[in-house]
Amino acid sequence: MATDKQPTVIKKYANRRLYHTGTSTYVTLEDLAGMVRKGEDFVVYDAKSGEEITRSVLAQIIFEQENKEGPNLLPVTVLRQLIRFYGDSMQALVPSYLEFSMNNLSQEQQKLREQMSQAFGPSAFQAMEEQVRKNMGFFSEAMRMFSPFPQPSSGTPEAKPAPKEGPDDLDTLKRQMADMQAKLDKLASK
Asked: DSSP string of 156-167?
């Protein structure tokens, strides 16, 4: 969310306490999660060193959310796939792909909410489940396209052999990216 407003500064002290400089109060990770949900932008600095640690604090919030009771947002298979990309040649592509996918999902989320408010009945939950299946299928297919390792066959006819090594690797990669872009465009237009 791009705004002209400067992000709120949060300072993290050695005792792990987080200090909200805008309200001059101590806050919790749950408070920061609420700020994110409301669309409020903040930056976290280590109070002693002055180092920006926003990324690690956001990751900690996700970790805390994943450990709560109830359904998890990140399935184990997705976590494993993400870990596989660290140190891989495709690592540089993953952040921009994930950012694009999350933006696309956010747009679809609004459409889904509108459909739910119009339907408001038993069929509303079916529409939500169908959308979740489509999004997870899209994400799984995209992760499979990025994986440099052959995936074990899971009984699905969609499993494709790994591309052959050779001088046309760049062409193959370009073709795969074009196919993926076409799929993204198709999903975005629904």
From this structure: -TT--PPPPPST
Helix (H) or strand (E) holding 102: helix 94-119
Which residue bears the tokens 């200090």? 19
Q: What is the pLDDT along the chain (190 residues), one digit of tens a residue?
A: 455 689 999 999 988 899 999 999 999 999 999 999 998 999 999 999 999 999 999 999 999 988 887 888 888 888 888 888 888 888 888 888 888 888 888 888 877 777 777 776 555 666 667 777 787 777 777 777 666 555 555 544 444 555 445 556 777 777 778 888 878 777 777 6
What CA–CA distances, in Å, run from 29 to 86, 97, 118, 173, 185?
26, 27, 35, 41, 36
Burial environment of residue 10 by CB neighbours within 10 A (0 to 12, 13 to 18, 19 or more): buried
Name beta bridge partners: 170: none
d(CA 50, CA 53): 9
Angle, alpha carbons 79-85-89 (nearest 5°): 175
Q: Does pTM top 0.90 for this prediction?
A: no
